[in-house]
Specification:
- This protein is an alpha/beta fold.
- Among the domains are: 88 residues, no CATH class; 85 residues, no CATH class.
- The chain has twelve helices and 16 strands.
- The strands form two sheets. Strands 7-1-2-3-4-5-6-16 form an eight-stranded antiparallel sheet, covered by helices on one side. An eight-stranded mixed sheet has the order 8-9-11-10-12-13-14-15, with helices on both faces.
- Helix 6 runs antiparallel to helix 7.
Length: 450
């Protein structure tokens, strides 16, 4: 799913949004999409209603576009698209009738009259120890016993509406399961208190509740784990007989190590600090993480925190405003749930065929270290089918980028060539995909306005 913030969202948990988690006034959310130049300002996106195009694959004279709803509170619901010909991805706004336009220049106009492949949503809710958990099964009408892919999420407040990926997989032969993160949609709880193991437990419960649904072949269920979701997918594979796992920009190390990598990259990117200052900043952060892991020696942590606040690098440390040492109980619980996890013991038991995708310019995950960790763990597990692909010129989201930093993504936003089609190609090798066509392609138009 395309976002203006990264799928790897731990920064929000250990940054300002963690403080907001315990405020009655704020909820973390993605910033709104960039404004369009005034001289060619398109209309604002309409709320999701019956007038919106059906989630699906739409045929045009020039090629194919996938369209799906996306919703991340408190941002208004959007209509996300992926244009196969240009690899562009973003949100659409309604112009008039069935005509929709991209928010970014050069504008693409789509006449979305009737999908070549329409996706049907079956909404579900189950109860467990955390209360209600809401999810959806997305499928094609009258299609039965198809493979199923579970679309996992990062540590954020996203809902089951996951944009173009739903029709993308559905039109290529797989049913799709998505869910409301804890505390979003109809799901009870709080996503900030939900760690990888809890997320895996939710997904496993959802899968078990669907057993008997003829739309799904339960011998061919897999998971797509982007970024933070890459810690969740192997847990599911360890407990549930998955047929495949796709990891996108995922770390094989601890969450804390990965956050430290991100912080160091931010310090380097700023260009304002000497090597000694960066070393000092990282030493402070490692110490604070040790306090968090052990829940001890908070007096020393308080002294270190007081000194760190005087340093020019402190604003980049992602320390929640007003944090105390020790943190308040609710804050401490949230931080520990979100940050204390080591996947290595789980990875050493995973033998599920796995595809790992990376961007060579990723500034949120150490790509070389991630590969080494997965290979080492899977060698111990006896994994026989592990494929890694690194895309040159791609960032954490596998978008084309100048440097890999979010602020340096190419304009207009677009995926690196080869993504997301590499996933379908790999699944096809496993015998898990098939082109789905419900009707003859509908003649549609697309125009570009410079």
């Amino acid at each position: 799913m395309f976002r203006t913030r990264l799928l790897f969202i731990l920064a929000l948990v250990v940054g300002t949004a963690a403080a907001n988690a315990f405020s009655s006034t704020a909820r973390a959310g993605a910033p709104s999409a960039a404004a369009t130049p005034a001289q060619e300002k398109p209309p604002q996106a309409a709320p999701i209603d019956s007038d919106w195009p059906t989630n699906g694959r739409y045929a045009t004279a020039q090629g194919v576009v996938y369209v799906g709803r996306t919703a991340e509170p408190p941002t208004k619901p959007q209509l996300e698209y992926f244009d196969v010909a240009t690899h562009r991805i973003g949100n659409l706004v309604k112009v008039e009738g069935n005509r929709y336009r991209t928010q970014e220049k050069p504008y693409l106009d789509f006449d979305l009259r009737r999908p070549e492949v329409a996706v049907i949503e079956d909404r579900h809710a189950i109860g467990d120890r955390q209360g209600r958990f809401g999810f959806s099964l997305w499928h094609i009408r009258d299609a039965t016993h198809r493979p199923l892919i579970v679309l996992l999420e990062g540590a954020d407040d996203s809902t089951r509406d996951m944009g173009f990926l739903i029709p993308y997989f559905a039109a290529n032969g797989l049913d799709v399961l998505t869910f409301d993160q804890r505390g979003t949609g109809i799901s009870s709880g709080n996503w900030r208190f939900t760690g990888p193991a809890d997320k895996a437990e939710d997904v496993e419960a959802a899968l078990k509740s669907l057993v008997g649904d003829t739309a799904v072949d339960f011998a061919r269920v897999g998971a797509w784990g982007p970024s933070n979701g890459g810690w969740v997918a192997p847990i599911i594979a360890h407990h549930y007989p998955l047929a495949f796992v796709i990891l996108k920009s995922s770390s094989s190390g601890t969450i804390i190590d990965n956050v430290s990598y991100e912080v160091r990259q931010d310090l380097l990117h700023s260009g304002r600090f000497s090597p000694q200052q960066i070393d000092d900043a990282m030493r402070f952060e490692r110490g604070l993480f040790r306090n968090l892991e052990t829940n001890s020696d908070w007096a020393s942590a308080g002294t270190a925190l007081k000194k760190a606040r005087t340093q020019p690098w402190f604003p980049l440390m992602r320390i929640p405003p007003g944090i105390t040492t020790p943190p308040a109980p609710a804050m401490l619980t949230a931080l520990r749930a979100s940050l204390i996890y080591d996947p290595r013991s789980t990875l050493e038991h995973v033998t599920t065929p796995t595809l790992a995708l990376y961007g060579a310019l990723d500034r949120n995950v150490d790509v070389a270290d991630g590969q080494r960790g997965f290979r080492a763990a899977f060698a111990r597990s006896g994994m026989r089918d592990f494929t890694v692909h690194v895309f040159p010129g791609a960032d954490h989201l596998l978008m084309l980028s100048k440097t890999g930093y979010e602020s340096d993504a190419l304009d207009p936003p677009r995926f690196v060539p080869g993504y997301p089609s590499i996933m379908i190609d790999w699944l096809s090798r496993l015998g898990l995909t098939a082109r789905t066509t419900q009707a003859a392609p509908v003649e549609q138009t697309r125009s570009e306005t410079k």
